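Why do we care about 3D structure at all? Because function follows from shape, and shape follows, mostly, from sequence. That is the central idea of this module. The next example makes it concrete: a single protein chain, its amino acid sequence, and then its structure expressed as tokens.
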Amino acid sequence: MPRSKEQFEEMRNATREKIHSAAMQLFVRQGYGSTNVQEIADTAGISIGLLYRHYKTKDQLFNELVTYAVEGLKRIITFFESTQSPKTLMEQFVDEVYSDMINGEQLAHLLILINQSLIAGAAAASIQYDEILQVNARLLDATAQLICKGQQLGEFYTGDAQEMATLFFASIQGLAQMKVLLKNNFTMPSSSTLIAFLLVERK
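And the structure:
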């Protein structure tokens, strides 16, 4: 019995997911330059011909993964710009980060991939490089503004909001690197530990 259009689309999406997962794993662990297309196909469990049906070059695949990661950063910006309590927003975000880091490697891989793209993009002076820099700057600004608002409401400790925003994301980025390097020996700090430097303790 011939497959329906929907079944073909499901198979296509499933294959792309395998490719994404394999490429992300290899790019993060070996680096972009040290990863070849055959390795990606082998890790994904597909033929190299099938991989080429989805992506004509390794660059195209890498750029799609980076675009996906950047969209994730944009969603965080939108989340931080909502009208909820800064304390509530920060706690929800940190809980999600904690859950993602405990239950899998995708978040860690995405964060490392963005860094790799910045390093590679600096050499190539790519448009994507400029966009990532802009989105990172926007994310830090949105976080600093959220912290400022929380400070005004007495929810967060006083201090330079831009410095606190930088410290916050530097800690998450560092944890992503440690998770990949330490593997099973990695211990993820609790949500409360991640934002202890921010939250004012209520007596």
